[in-house]
Amino acid sequence: MINTIDYQKIFFEITSDFKETDDIGTIATYIPELGKVNPKKLGIHLTTIDNQHYAFGDSEESFSIQSVAKVLSLTLALKIMGGEIWKRVGVEPSGSAFNSLVQLEYEKGIPRNPFINAGAIVICDILVSCLDKPKQDLLTFIRETSGIDSVNYSYQVAESEKKCGYRNYALVNLMKDFGNIHNDIDIVLDLYFYLCSIEMTCKQLTQSFMFLASGGVNPITNQSVISPTRAKRINSVMLMCGFYDEAGDFAFKVGLPGKSGVGGGIVAIHPGKFCIAVWSPKLNANGNSYKGMKVLEALTSKTQCSIF
Ligand SMILES: NC(=O)CC[C@H](N)C(=O)O
User: Fold this and answer.
1) For 143-181, what is each residue's pLDDT tens digit?
2) Residue-range domain boundaries for the chain
3) How far is 38 from 93, CA to CA, in rounded Å?
4) How confident is the model at residue 1 (pLDDT cuts 50, 70, 90)?
5) What ipTM was estimated for this complex?
6) Which among 102, 253, 293, 300 is least surrounded, fewest beta carbons within 10 Å?
C-alpha cells in the first residue's frame, strides 16, 4: 500500500490548533492510582498496515489502558469458545454508563455488550472457566498478539482498583444471582481488575490491535490472531459499543471502530489501512478522553479517512 497522507504533518496541525483550547476534562480519580498521572500528557501513534509509523508527543510512554484491554479479552474468549459466548453477553449498544447497574436488573443479568463493565466481567468469567492459569494465560495471549514480551499488568493499579471497585462488586453479585457468573466472584474480579491494569504505550497499542485492521492477521508478525469474520465482528462491536453512551457520537464525529479506557487511552481502527492510539488522561463526562476524541475527530475530518 502506498500511503499518500502525511499523518505526521496532520498531527502537528491538529495539536497546534488545540494549543489554545482548554482541556475541560477531568482525570479518573475513582481508581486512586490513576489520579497520580500527569494530566497534561498527550501521545499519538499511527501504524499503517504496511508498518509505517507516525508518532507525536508521549507516544512511547506506558499508561494504564483500562477498558481498551476488553477488546483483547473478548478476542481470546471468541477464539476459545466461538459464538457460544453470545448466549451470555449481547452485541447491542447500552446507551448507559460503563458501570451502570440499571439495565442489568431489567435484562436479567445478561449485559448488553462485552465492553461495558458487566459484559467484560462475564467475559472474564468465561476465561476463568476455560483457562488453566487465567491471569498468566491471558497475559501470554496479549504478548503473542502484540509481539511484545514486556507487556505487563500493573500490580499497583489492579490492587488500587480492587480496594475501591464497589460498583464492579455490585455488578458481579447481581449477575451471580441471575446465574450468569459461574465461578467464584473474587477470582473473576481478580482477572477483571488485572485485565484493566495492563500498561502499554500508544505505539504498543497500535501493534497489539493491528490484527483488527487486517482481517485478523497481525501484518507485522504475520501471526493469525482470529478469523476474518470474527475480526469483522469485533470491529462492529467496537463501532456500536466502544464508547458507552457516547458510541453514537464517536461514530458520528470520527467514523471509525474504536475503544476507550478511563486511563485516557483510545484505540481506533481503519480496516485495511491503519490502527491509531491516542492518550490524553483527562476524561469527559462519559468517561472517554476529552482531547483523544477531539484529536481523532480532527484527523478523520482533515484526511476524509473514515469507514463511511
Ligand atoms: N471505562 C473503563 O475504562 C472502566 C474500567 C475500570 N477498570 C472500571 O472497572 O471501572
Assistant:
1) 999 999 999 999 999 999 999 999 999 999 999 999 999
2) 7-303
3) 32
4) very low
5) 0.97
6) 102
Question: Cell triple for residue 33?
Answer: 492510582
Amino acid at 177: D
Q: Does the beta carbon of 168 sit less than 6 angstroms from any atom of ligand 1?
A: yes
**Residues near 206 by Cβ (< 8 Å), separated by ≥ 6?**
45, 46, 47, 267, 274, 275, 276, 277
Choose among 308, 217, 222, 204: nearest CA to 265.
204
- Reading the block at residue 114, the C-alpha cell is 462485552
- Ligand 1 atom nearest 196 alpha carbon: 7
For residue range 214-246, list pLDDT tens digits in order: 999 999 889 999 999 999 999 999 999 999 999
Question: Which triple of cell numbers denotes residue 131?
Answer: 483457562
pTM for the predicted model, two decimal places: 0.97
For domain 7-303, the CATH superfamily is DD-peptidase/beta-lactamase superfamily (3.40.710.10)
Distance 8 CA to ligand 1 centre (A): 31
Distance CA 189, CA 49 (A): 35
* Residue found under cell 462475564: 122
Q: Which three cell numbers stand for residue 192?
A: 477483571
